[in-house]
Amino acid sequence: MIHIEHLYKRIGSTSILSDVSLHITKGEVVGLLGPNGAGKSTLMKVLTGLWRAEQGRVEVCGVDVLSNPDAVHPHIGYLPEQNPLYADMYVREYLTFIARVRCSARATGSALGAKSPSIEQLINLVGLTPQANKRIRELSKGYKQRVGLAAAMIGDPEVLILDEPTTGLDPNQLEDIRALIRDLGKHHTVILSTHILQEVKAICSRVVIIDHGQIRLDRPLDDIPDLDAAFKSATASA
């Protein structure tokens, strides 16, 4: 599903990722855990084809991302840390617009292909039905995140890449979004970046700890008796 081998990425003279290798199989929910500035967002941007890497191999759903970044886009749904939304558009209008952009006008609220959910199904799936006719700027942070998740799911991509999806949410919104991501993980491969250990405990089946651009630990969550201690140990040696 996802194969990363000996990946290096620099920005100017600064090394952001150094010899990163990672393999993720279909159906896994992987928590990419690390402190701020560890390289999590950079790795996600390379996976989506938004940023080029200087060296290494990145393959997603059989696509060589480094040599053909545009070809990976249909396979990936991406929610960046700064959720890009058109605040003056209505929820249903915005999702329909994104569907037209992403799927070359194949959908206007109906099916996005033989097996893809419709806009109305996505709205219902992420719990936005009461807000569907509201402008995005009228929504709370939690509901804006739901709009971003719905947009990421348009076209039913195999892989969902979610960069700090719960940042800034209040406790009630936090649990709702975590529950939604857990449900999404039943039918998609999910990579979730966070610096919050509780987030990984609540959502993920596997944890990858990254610090200073290098993977320090990669293990199923059930095999880690004390994630807090493992995190401290993995990042203390950096």
Short overview:
The protein has 238 residues and is α/β, with parallel strands linked by helices. It contains seven helices and ten strands.
The profile of the biggest β sheet is:
6 strands, mixed
Query: Proportion of β residues?
Result: 25-35%
CATH architecture: 3-Layer(aba) Sandwich
Strand arrangement, major sheet: 6-7-8-3-9-10
Tell the overall outline. Answer: globular
Q: How many structural domains in the coordinates?
A: 1
Share in helix = 25-40%
Mean pLDDT: 90
- Number-wise, the strands total 10
Low-confidence stretches: 105-114
Compute the number of helices: 7
How would you describe this protein?
The radius of gyration is 18 Å and the shape is globular. A 6-stranded mixed sheet has the order 6-7-8-3-9-10, with helices on both faces. The protein contains 7 helices and 10 strands. It is α/β, with parallel strands linked by helices and 238 residues long. The two termini are 29 Å apart. Residues 105-114 have low confidence and may be disordered. Helix 4 (141-153) runs parallel beside helix 5. Helix content is 30%, strand content 26%.
